[in-house]
Amino acid sequence: MRRTTMTQFKTLDDADVTGKRVLLRVDLNVPIKDGEVGDRTRIERILPTIREIADKGGRVILLAHFGRPKGQPNPEMSLEPLAPVLSQMLGTPVGFADDCIGPVAAGIVAALKDGNVVLLENTRFHAGEEKNDEEFASQLASLGDIFVNDAFSAAHRAHASTEGLARHLPSYAGRTMQAELEALEKGLGNPERPVVAVVGGAKVSTKIDLLSNLVTRVDALVIGGGMANTFLAAQGIDVGKSLCEHDLADTARAILDAAKTAGCEIVLPVDAVVAGEFKAGAANETVAVGAVPADAMILDAGPKTVDLVSGWLDKAKTLVWNGPLGAFEIEPFDAATMAAARHAARRTKAGDLVSVAGGGDTVAALNQAGVADDFTYVSTAGGAFLEWMEGKPLPGVEVLKA
Ligand SMILES: Nc1ncnc2c1ncn2[C@@H]1O[C@H](COP(=O)(O)OP(=O)(O)O)[C@@H](O)[C@H]1O
Ligand SMILES: O=C(OP(=O)(O)O)[C@H](O)COP(=O)(O)O
């Protein structure tokens, strides 16, 4: 189906971290529910790298983004609440600096002792992060002696803390970065057909372009969640107030054409659970996709769609899944995602399916269904995982090879 040769970058095995200031890029873009961290998988996965560096006497300076604050400080997207969570999970104090560059960051880094850990504020509070600005990258670089990237799930972004920084400092892959690439290669390097991809979720504009390539690599593509609404609308179906990117209608139609050319079956919802508000327990009804009321929004796939998806999961030998089929965080709109997760898990346990799923919310959904351990592999990455599958070079990985 793809792919690159295995890892040609340096790892922590090659790094001398003792007494060094180690800028460690991690992905703390975790689901937050009622002000609390929901699913902790992304944090759990970075603990071994943090511990290894700290145990070897390195000074760990954590860099991460949260949400999409568009280059401006935004208290709602502060990483500060993550510091006590990290501290509790690591079993060691984790300091916090409320800026990732400048005197505040420099001061807290200068005070670090060997084995200490500090978290710096959201890198995306500076416009230079997403622009991969040289000056911003060099300001980050001035805080460290070496750079370790353990954020595979952000490796598809050519940002200052995922890509630019690696051109300023000696750079290494962290243990999670290494493990993700090895596991994906093992699970999907040479997949058994039919390969069925399921793509849902809410990040429509950033993921839709990937689909035109994905359809050339898989036998069927199930489109669900918010992503499906854009495709339904592109076919002239009224989706009411649903999450939908109407200006991507042409892109959606081009993907449908590309799928036809490639012989990839596209599976779209045939029915939907709709509600007037995005709220747990909101009054809802199940309707055919052609009958969504103008003042309602699609929040889940309906039972006929669930049957359709199950049928494709039965045909599949390999499943690649990113993005939930509905707003699974709020009941009862979790039904389709839970049903598909459990169905795929059953087939995997029976030895009939290789199932690889990824994405912050997708992992949370699998944990909510209680089946994450039954999947062949669960990646922390969503968009990066899909881009890896397409064979697209990931900037955050490529720069480590340079
Ligand atoms: N029909 C829908 N309407 C609104 N939001 C949806 C819908 N279906 C799924 N979602 C939302 O998609 C989000 C996950 O999307 P995304 O970030 O793309 O996935 P991942 O993090 O797994 O890559 C969830 O918060 C979920 O509530
Ligand atoms: O959560 C992430 O991606 P994902 O939702 O595709 O898994 C990563 O942290 C990247 O975030 P971004 O899509 O805002 O660049």
TrEMBL record:
<feature type="binding site">
    <location>
        <position position="329"/>
    </location>
    <ligand>
        <name>ATP</name>
    </ligand>
</feature>
<feature type="binding site">
    <location>
        <position position="124"/>
    </location>
    <ligand>
        <name>substrate</name>
    </ligand>
</feature>
<feature type="binding site">
    <location>
        <position position="207"/>
    </location>
    <ligand>
        <name>ATP</name>
    </ligand>
</feature>
<feature type="binding site">
    <location>
        <position position="124"/>
    </location>
    <ligand>
        <name>(2R)-3-phosphoglycerate</name>
    </ligand>
</feature>
<dbReference type="GO" id="GO:0043531">
    <property type="term" value="F:ADP binding"/>
</dbReference>
<dbReference type="GO" id="GO:0004618">
    <property type="term" value="F:phosphoglycerate kinase activity"/>
</dbReference>
<dbReference type="InterPro" id="IPR001576">
    <property type="entry name" value="Phosphoglycerate_kinase"/>
</dbReference>
<dbReference type="GO" id="GO:0005524">
    <property type="term" value="F:ATP binding"/>
</dbReference>
<dbReference type="Pfam" id="PF00162">
    <property type="entry name" value="PGK"/>
</dbReference>
<dbReference type="InterPro" id="IPR036043">
    <property type="entry name" value="Phosphoglycerate_kinase_sf"/>
</dbReference>
<feature type="binding site">
    <location>
        <begin position="359"/>
        <end position="362"/>
    </location>
    <ligand>
        <name>ATP</name>
    </ligand>
</feature>
<protein>
    <recommendedName>
        <fullName>Phosphoglycerate kinase</fullName>
        <ecNumber>2.7.2.3</ecNumber>
    </recommendedName>
</protein>
<comment type="subunit">
    <text>Monomer.</text>
</comment>
<keyword id="KW-0418">Kinase</keyword>
<dbReference type="GO" id="GO:0005829">
    <property type="term" value="C:cytosol"/>
</dbReference>
<feature type="binding site">
    <location>
        <begin position="27"/>
        <end position="29"/>
    </location>
    <ligand>
        <name>substrate</name>
    </ligand>
</feature>
<dbReference type="GO" id="GO:0006094">
    <property type="term" value="P:gluconeogenesis"/>
</dbReference>
<dbReference type="InterPro" id="IPR015911">
    <property type="entry name" value="Phosphoglycerate_kinase_CS"/>
</dbReference>
<feature type="binding site">
    <location>
        <begin position="65"/>
        <end position="68"/>
    </location>
    <ligand>
        <name>substrate</name>
    </ligand>
</feature>
<keyword id="KW-0808">Transferase</keyword>
<feature type="binding site">
    <location>
        <position position="157"/>
    </location>
    <ligand>
        <name>substrate</name>
    </ligand>
</feature>
<keyword id="KW-0067">ATP-binding</keyword>
<dbReference type="GO" id="GO:0006096">
    <property type="term" value="P:glycolytic process"/>
</dbReference>
<feature type="binding site">
    <location>
        <position position="42"/>
    </location>
    <ligand>
        <name>substrate</name>
    </ligand>
</feature>
<feature type="binding site">
    <location>
        <position position="42"/>
    </location>
    <ligand>
        <name>(2R)-3-phosphoglycerate</name>
    </ligand>
</feature>
<comment type="similarity">
    <text>Belongs to the phosphoglycerate kinase family.</text>
</comment>
<keyword id="KW-0324">Glycolysis</keyword>
<keyword id="KW-0547">Nucleotide-binding</keyword>
<keyword id="KW-0963">Cytoplasm</keyword>
<comment type="pathway">
    <text>Carbohydrate degradation; glycolysis; pyruvate from D-glyceraldehyde 3-phosphate: step 2/5.</text>
</comment>
<feature type="binding site">
    <location>
        <position position="157"/>
    </location>
    <ligand>
        <name>(2R)-3-phosphoglycerate</name>
    </ligand>
</feature>
<dbReference type="InterPro" id="IPR015824">
    <property type="entry name" value="Phosphoglycerate_kinase_N"/>
</dbReference>
